[in-house]
Specification:
The chain is α/β, with parallel strands linked by helices. The protein has 2 domains: 7-102 and 192-224, Periplasmic binding protein-like II (D-Maltodextrin-Binding Protein, domain 2, 3-Layer(aba) Sandwich); 104-191, 3-Layer(aba) Sandwich (D-Maltodextrin-Binding Protein, domain 2). Helix content is 29%, strand content 28%. It is built from 6 helices and 11 strands. The strands form 2 sheets. The protein has a 6-stranded mixed β-sheet with strand order 2-3-1-4-11-5. The longest helix is centred in the last third of the chain and has 21 residues, at 204-224. It starts with 6 loop residues before the first strand and ends with a helix. It binds adenosine-5'-triphosphate and zinc ion. Adenosine-5'-triphosphate is lined by residues 12, 15-17, 54-56, 73, 75-76, 102, 104, 170, 172, 191. Residues 54-218 form the ATP phosphoribosyltransferase catalytic domain.
Length: 225
């Protein structure tokens, strides 16, 4: 459990979500002194600390109560929940709100020169991905017998490198797939960033602060519509 009365929020330190997370916290009225190298930033106007970590660590930090809130892509959240559930660990988290940034799709893709393929083609093939649990769940439901190859980066070069026949990777515009000579197939998950909360959070002061921030979040979202 987090050790003091300051609300702890985990966000991505550097990457696709960090700028939007920082902008959102600012719009919520949380003043921060964000120095690049610091892991923790203390708010100067509210009892809030912001932890800046790798996005992959955010679901676990919130599930374990190390942080009270977190902002993370649904793709990372769903994968972490499946992974933890498999290992018998607590995988519960309360989703407070979907956010209007970080949109991407987790989609299948294969070398363009093979042309369009049906689901059946994947039987017996190797598929490289950073999201093995989400992919395995999809394959199970689609009744496809394929081998899942786990890669934590450079998934899009796996077919060319001979590591896999196809990939299952995050796509937003499709430009990366095209640049790597890959054709996009089924989307297996659509994702946005979301705000999550530890399910056991009981500190009245922290809950009151969250209740003060949530209407502001709603206001920020409505102002953008
Ligand atoms: P970290 O160093 O924190 O582990 P990362 O390299 O895993 O960072 P990023 O590439 O910064 O992660 O992506 C963070 C999140 O941004 C993704 O998990 C996803 O939710 C979202 N996202 C939006 N568009 C894309 C995209 N085109 N490719 C990958 N992720 C995207
Ligand atoms: Zn990551």
């Amino acid at each position: 459990m987090s050790s003091n009365n300051r609300l702890r929020i985990a966000i991505q330190k550097s990457g696709r979500l960090s700028k939007d997370c920082q902008a959102l916290l600012k719009q919520l009225g949380i003043k921060l002194n964000l120095r690049e190298e610091r892991l923790i930033a203390h708010s100067t106007n509210m009892p809030i600390d912001v932890l800046r970590v790798r996005d992959d660590d955010i679901p676990g930090l919130v599930m374990d109560g190390v942080c009270d809130l977190g902002i993370v892509g649904e793709n990372v959240l769903v994968e972490a929940q499946a992974e933890r559930a498999k290992g018998g660990q607590n995988a519960e988290v309360q989703k407070l709100s979907a956010l209007d940034f970080g949109y991407c799709r987790l989609a299948l893709a294969w070398p363009q020169e093979l042309g369009p393929q049906t689901q059946n083609w994947f039987n017996g093939k190797r598929i490289a991905t950073t999201y093995p649990q989400i992919l395995k769940d999809y394959l199970r439901r689609a009744n496809i017998d394929a081998k899942v190859v786990v890669l934590t980066g450079s998934v899009e070069v796996a077919p060319r490198a001979g590591l896999a026949d196809a990939i299952c990777d995050l796509v937003s515009t499709g430009a990366t797939l095209e640049a790597n000579g890959l054709m996009q197939g089924d989307t297996i998950l659509e994702s946005n960033a979301c705000l999550i909360q530890n399910t056991n959070l009981s500190c009245p002061d922290k809950l009151a602060l969250i209740n003060k921030l949530l209407p502001r979040l709603k206001g920020v979202r409505q102002a953008k519509e």
